[in-house]
Design a protein that fits this description.
mainly beta, about 300 residues
Length: about 300
């Protein structure tokens, strides 16, 4: 196995005490990071210039954040609906999708493909109304796409936790995962028409934790956060392990590159990051030594 890289270069950006930090995205126009706490129904924004953190609360779990082609608008993925949210007025402006199976099922990870179409996964809802977590007992998750026209397509089903959505630099390979199966899949992707074909095993059975959220770098390597594994693993296009980065938190959950120097990787964490009774350090960053790719916005 590849030897892990010491975590001495990892720094804390925000200690927000998240129960399940997730869904981070870099907003280049605002020079800020947005991320969520699923269990508490929170959306956070960290302003890089001054370190100020703002937080907003919602009536459902907030699972992911997506940029749009309108600077002031974000797509927020909630437990049972997907909405547009205005970063200036702090209000929902439109509902793009409602999950019919909510609250038995909920939405989870979400990203935008090279053509500007939103992809998102679902899973058994494991968040009680008080924010505590339930065990997952059903493999009822699925993988969907949502176009600005409102067209929704289901591509795969039978997932324990549908997670990880990423595309190769040329857009012709799509990566997606089932956390409970400890498996990351890939399929051929048409980046013009947003069509996913096939599903083959890309990365399975890695012994350190389970696959949570991921991002792709400019060299086509997948950076996968390993829930329960205290690490992020960089996976080569051929499915071999290129690097293992130990993390100070047991449960890294998802990651994204900034668009400033494009080598800074930011990641969120869930639970088990408490230290001497202080608030949990929930958002971290380190210099990856490789450029990321610009985030594709949802095309309204």
């Amino acid at each position: 196995m590849i030897d892990p890289i010491p975590n001495t270069g990892i720094r804390c950006l925000a200690a927000t005490g998240d129960l399940c930090g997730e869904g981070c995205v870099w907003h280049p126009q605002q020079n800020a990071v947005f991320w969520t706490d699923i269990n508490r129904g929170l959306l956070h924004r960290l302003e890089i210039e001054n370190g100020n953190v703002e937080t907003w609360r919602f009536d459902q779990p907030v699972t992911a954040v997506v940029l749009t082609n309108r600077t002031e608008l974000l797509v927020l993925i909630l437990g049972g609906r997907i909405v547009l949210w205005n970063t200036r007025t702090h209000r929902e402006t439109d509902t793009l999708f409602r999950l019919p199976e909510w609250p038995a099922l909920r939405c989870n990870d979400a990203r935008v493909d090279p053509a500007g179409v939103l992809w998102f996964g679902t899973m058994q809802n494991n968040v009680r109304s008080d924010g505590t977590t339930l065990d997952i007992t059903e493999w009822s998750g699925a993988l969907y796409s949502l176009a600005a026209s409102g067209e929704v397509k289901q591509w795969h089903s039978g997932f324990g936790i549908s997670n990880t959505l990423a595309w190769s630099p040329n857009g012709e390979t799509m990566y997606f995962a089932d956390t409970l199966a400890n498996t990351i899949y890939r399929g051929h992707f048409d980046p013009i028409h947003s069509i996913l074909e096939g599903r083959e095993i890309f990365f399975r059975g890695f012994e350190r934790g389970l696959p949570d959220g991921s991002t792709i770098d400019a060299e086509g390597y997948l950076w996968n956060c390993r829930y329960g594994g205290s690490c992020i693993v960089r996976i080569a296009p051929d499915g071999t392990v290129a690097r293992i980065i130990d993390t100070p938190a047991t449960n890294p959950t998802t990651c994204t590159f900034t668009s400033g120097d494009k080598e800074t990787l930011i990641f969120t964490t869930a639970g088990n990051a408490m230290s001497q009774g202080k608030p949990a350090e929930s958002l971290f960053a380190f210099e990856s030594g490789v450029r990321g790719l610009p985030v594709t916005p949802f095309a309204l």
